[in-house]
């Protein structure tokens, strides 16, 4: 047997046949790698998958079609951070190279457009108002500044508190600049009726505080006799104490000690007239 093996190894025909087999195998592998497999997999026609996350489903479909790709909604998931029918995820991922007409599997948001009740941020600091709005899923819009006593305090908000709006709504804020107090002139209200004085004070931004009634012979009832403080100017929003006239009544006691109201008793001179 060893002699037969030795004879085979020394035979030139054997080596020629073996070399032929190796050459044929190498040729087959070359054809497989460069001809057969590319033809089968469309290797030379690869498509780069576009990024279609965070866009509406309709827009995602249009993008995929323009790349020669198809899509399938593989999963629907609720996510309040996105509007309804927005693409949350995709597979294959963006930038991967795939065959033409490949199907891209999508995860789509089922959440309807969420709404939220607007919080009250008036009288809060700008920083706290911003945090409050963001916690509710709202955004701070335009910030305007107005002269007021305390700096960076919210004076007004464009969307009233307790209104129900979509998440992401922008709320404009009017904020105090802290540049100082606004002084206003106290109007002349002496001799005016109480209702007229109230209107005048409201027009200049002043408020009425305590009202003290005082009997007066000089003024008709409900007329401003005086006010406090006695100044030419005070800070806008401050209150005034008013002294208002009331009916003056003269009371006497008869011999029995009973109280007699003589304010409406006519004098003899009036009777003669």
CATH-scheme architecture of the largest domain: 2-Layer Sandwich
Taking the alpha carbons of the first and last residues, their distance comes to 172 Å
Using the coordinates above, name the CATH class of the largest domain.
Alpha Beta
As laid out across the biggest beta sheet, the strand order is: 2-5-3
CATH topology of the largest domain: Trypsin Inhibitor V, Chain A
Tally of helical segments: 6
Output the helix-strand order.
HHEHEEEEEHEEEEEHEEEEEEH
Give the biggest beta sheet.
3 strands, mixed
Low-confidence stretches: 257-273
From the structure above, extract its key features:
273 residues, alpha+beta, Trypsin Inhibitor V, Chain A, 3-stranded mixed β-sheet, 17 strands, rod-shaped, disordered C terminus
What does this structure look like?
This protein has four domains: 11-41; 44-109, Trypsin Inhibitor V, Chain A (2-Layer Sandwich), CATH 3.30.10; 115-176, Trypsin Inhibitor V, Chain A; 183-251, Trypsin Inhibitor V, Chain A. By secondary structure, it is of the alpha+beta class. The longest helix has 30 residues, at 12-41. It starts with a helix and ends with a helix. The model is unreliable at 257-273 (pLDDT under 50). It has helices at 2-9, 12-41, 57-66, 126-135, 194-203, 268-272, and strands at 47-48, 70-77, 87-91, 97-98, 103-109, 115-117, 139-146, 154-157, 164-166, 170-176, 183-185, 207-216, 224-228, 233-235, 239-247, 251-253, 259-261. It is 27% helix and 31% strand.
